[in-house]
Structures are given as structure tokens and as C-alpha cells.
Amino acid sequence: MTRSDALTEIFNFMDHKVRVVILKGQDGGRAPWFVAVDVRRCLGVTQSGSNYSLLTENEKCLRGRTSLGLPGGRPIMLVSESGLYKLILKSRKPEAKAFQDWVTQVVLPAIRKDGLYVRGEEKVSAGEMDLEELTLITLTRLQEKMKRLKEEKEAAEALAKFSQGIITEHLDYVTMDE
């Protein structure tokens, strides 16, 4: 088991635990994948197969339990972040309504108006947080994002340099007659 394939977090949503796995993607970045049975439980869905037909192949995957640090058994279905949103937004269950409302009434309008959503910004208008605290949180998150983008850029540059070396090496062996 690699560190990137371990169950890393457990979120609680309406008294339901949702296990999250961080997996390495094809682009080299890491992304959260959610244990599908936990998502189903949160949404009040009883049949497993029907909802997954809504998802594309890159929004779902099966993983062996032991690769996730769990005891052996049947593989576990995981759902990508975009797949999770798709399942929630398509759900007609009351359990999904709070999330749907938050996305459509808070997050998307903030993105349309300001070009971004800062987690917790609705607390300022509700009087639960002052503007200075929100500013500090926003700056901290921007610094974290800049650090992540810098690391991604360095990784991409290293890959490009490596790829260029391979191409150059193989081009030395190609002649016009070939």
C-alpha cells in the first residue's frame, strides 16, 4: 500500500461517515475519491448500481480493499469528486437538498459575482465571522494554492525535461532513410 492509496480522511455528513481516499491521477496530481457505499448512505440510496450509471468511467473506479489498508474482501467502488457532485445534484432525496441549496445558492453565485468562493464567506453576512478573519483565511488559502501550483509546475517541468531527453536520445537513431 502506498501512502497515496490510504484511507486518509473521514468526513461526517448528517451523522454519516464518508471515507475519503487520496489517489494519484494520470496527471500526477492527487485527488479525493469517496467510498461509494458511504455516499449512498448519506443520500439515502438503497440500490447500488442505478446511481453509478450516471457516472462516466473516469468518475468511478474499483479498488482492492487491501490496497486501501482494509481487511480483504470484495473491491470497493470509489467515486471521484466530480462524480460525487453529480450524484448529489441529481439526487431527489431530502438528504441531498441541503448540499444542493448550498452549491446553488451560495457557492455558484459567489463564483459568478467574485470569480471565487472562499469557504465560510457566508458567515460574514450572517455576523458569525468578521471581515478581517475572512481576509486572513483567504490569504492563507491563496498562499497554500500558490505553493501547490509551484510544486505542480516544477513537477511538470521535470517531466518535460525528462521527456525531451528521451526524445532527443531516440532521434539520434532515426535517419532520413527510415
UniProtKB/TrEMBL annotation:
The keyword Transcription regulation does not apply. Residues 7-115 form the Bro-N domain. Keywords: Coiled coil. Pfam families: Bro-N. Residues 132-166 form a coiled coil. InterPro entries: BRO_N_domain. SMART domains: Bro-N (SM01040). This is Bro-N domain-containing protein. The lineage of its organism: Bacteria, Pseudomonadati, Pseudomonadota, Alphaproteobacteria, Hyphomicrobiales.
